[in-house]
Amino acid sequence: MDGAEQDIKSRDRQIAENESNRQVEGDIRVSTWAIGVAGILVLIGFAIGWLLLRR
Question: pTM of this prediction?
């Protein structure tokens, strides 16, 4: 393998690593939003249940 091929493989590995990191960051961001939305829905459900029980 000559130097050019080695450079290309090294560059490809770096690109794959960067893409992997971006995917993980995106997954964390989506999970955070999903947990937040679920928490808000739970709070709304508790509020509605509490209001219905007070009647």
Answer: 0.63
